[in-house]
């Protein structure tokens, strides 16, 4: 990866959260991780025993990683040694996401989430 200079005139980000990152320039590795457990209820009744990551396989089962190697040929012609960006406007970035102007050799982003919604129903439904 040939290093280049990244130049951003204006960058507007309203919200960046939950293990997300904004990278201007080159980096070797980005590895954001986020675990989320959300309960949404029509009535705000919550039990003290809720919200344990250990109760769900999702949070501790190892991810399957495939190491597939396929030889490919690439050619890059960077006429300019500078990456020029005028304006970037972003409303929101969340849950192990990446905003980048530049190059990264390796990205290993991971999000594991459980979202539970409990709603009341009337007898006629």
From TrEMBL:
It comes from the Bacteria. Pfam families: GerPE. This is Spore germination protein GerPE. It comes from Pullulanibacillus camelliae.
């Amino acid at each position: 990866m040939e290093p280049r200079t990244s130049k951003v005139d204006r960058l507007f980000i309203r919200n960046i959260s939950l293990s997300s990152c904004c990278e201007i320039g080159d980096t070797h590795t980005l590895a954001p991780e986020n675990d989320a457990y959300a309960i949404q209820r029509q009535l705000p009744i919550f039990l003290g025993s809720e919200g344990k990551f250990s109760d769900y396989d999702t949070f501790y089962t190892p991810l399957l990683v495939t190491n597939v190697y396929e030889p490919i040929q690439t050619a890059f012609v960077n006429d300019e040694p500078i990456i020029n960006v005028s304006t970037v406007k972003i409303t929101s970035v969340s849950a192990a996401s990446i905003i980048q102007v530049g190059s990264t050799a390796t990205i290993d982003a991971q999000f594991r989430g459980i979202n539970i919604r409990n709603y009341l129903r009337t007898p006629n439904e």
